[in-house]
Task: structure prediction
Amino acid sequence: MKKEILVSALAASLFLSQGAFVFADDVKPVKVDETEAITEIAILPPVNMTLEQAYEQLKADSPQAISANFVYESELAVSKGYIENLSNLNKSAREDPWADTSQKPIAELRVDFAKEQAKKNYEAALNSLKREVYEKYYTHKQTEAQLIAAKENYERAIKLKQEADLKFRVGKVSKLETLNADTAVNDALDAYQKAKNGLEADKMGYN
Result:
């Protein structure tokens, strides 16, 4: 019971739609492929990848990471220009005591600022990338939980339907109860299909 409550909390709510009625006399046991949902989940990256691994992979080859590295290298190149300018001023001061070194304090500030700013900009870009990865990862895990909950609900509805059919055939329940069980199966199947479609859409967004 606790497991179902936990899964339900992660999965939020499963919206059930109306299904077609099937009369008890015509009902045949419905089978569900118990590996179907598990197979659907198993092909997705987060199952075989930790959150940190997902981040490291994206940092290595995503357009955002490549752009962040390019900007960082460009800003470092600018700071190297300032360093070279400062070096020239120092050289001039050593070679000529009368050389104008009034720009040296400004040059030193430019060097420090450029290096520090390049580092901050790069870290900000990576933090933005990390937030994106975390959001996608946890959204994906929630969608997985929705599929698992929907699959369990579908299988439970099938079992209850089969029990209702058997009871109806021996006169223990009314036909209305079998009709309700049929509707529950159809509704649960609809919710299961929606959860699968949601996971597939999420997988495309994750990649």
